[in-house]
Amino acid sequence: MNNSALLSLLCLVALLHQSLAASPQFNVIQFGAKPDGRTDSTSAFLAAWKQACSSTRGVTLYVPKGRFLTRSMLFKGPCRNSAIFIRIDGTLVAPSDIWAIGNNPNWIEFQYVNGVTISGGVLDGKGAPLWSCKLAGRKCPTGATTLGFSFCNNVLVSGVTSLNSQMFHVVINFCQNVKLQGVRISAPGNSPNTDGIHIQMSTGVTVVNTKVATGDDCVSIGPGAANLRIENFACGPGHGISIGSLGKNVNEPGVQNVTVKSTTFTGTTNGLRIKSWGKPSNGFARNILFQHATMNNVQNPIFIDQRYCPDRNCPDTVKKIKKILSVTTLFRSSVKQHFL
């Protein structure tokens, strides 16, 4: 690098630091949040978000070290700026009471936000009491997804850890340009309905350098997902990476342009799976590439199920399967299966 280029780089770094230093920062402590893990800090977080969302400049919402108890929170846009940086050095804790958030679709949800980064921290969903309730067959709430994004664009989730979600850990729905990197998701292998990452009706989603251990699909890809890339991904325990189920409804968007590359599956029920209902539908899976997958003690390394029906009264599928799943590019993969 010559002196001129080095000088330009140093100037750019200096300007970046100056910009970050000048941008407003809203610490949730200043809005009344308590890092004791017992005091309800929901109102403080929402008040900090209101200030951040109304700022006309890029802004940082800061969660310092400590444990912050919150109920369900909706961070709603559109905001007046498209550069909100949420830095989490602490842990957000859901209530242990299964009814406190269990009937809400999400514990933490972002809606209609353009340009948000969530960096670091731990999200503890406290899901064990709800799982026990479900496994015992008692009357229970459905359970909340830990982190949901709906109608959001240009989202980055980096270095976040999600623990023991009541239901799904991360859901991306009707979004564009979302990237998850360095995310860690963890729940026991017998925790019901705890999908790691669910993506549907969204385009341009990237998941890289991420590890998921859970009781259901590590990644589930639903109708309307397009231009999706998953790379350097580890799954296990769990049910693998699943496309579908597709074709449950007659008029249903398909899944297309999906690349799943450099993955490792350990102790999972499935590796790479596509599942569709055996009944008439416009749904499809097209341009799917699974490449460089390593399987360790996987029951079904590659599983294509065109007669998916988890319930009773399943439809007659014999003459209808071809209408459901259209895969033009399925496998160009090297799959290695190891048994320990």
TrEMBL record:
It comes from the Eukaryota. Keywords: Cell wall, Cell wall biogenesis/degradation, Glycosidase, Hydrolase, Secreted, Signal. Residues 1-21 form the signal peptide. GO terms for biological process: carbohydrate metabolic process; cell wall organization. The active site is at H239. It is found in: Secreted, Cell wall. It holds the Pfam family Glyco_hydro_28. GO terms for molecular function: polygalacturonase activity. Gene3D superfamilies: Single-stranded right-handed beta-helix, Pectin lyase-like. Belongs to the glycosyl hydrolase 28 family. This is Polygalacturonase. It comes from Linum tenue.
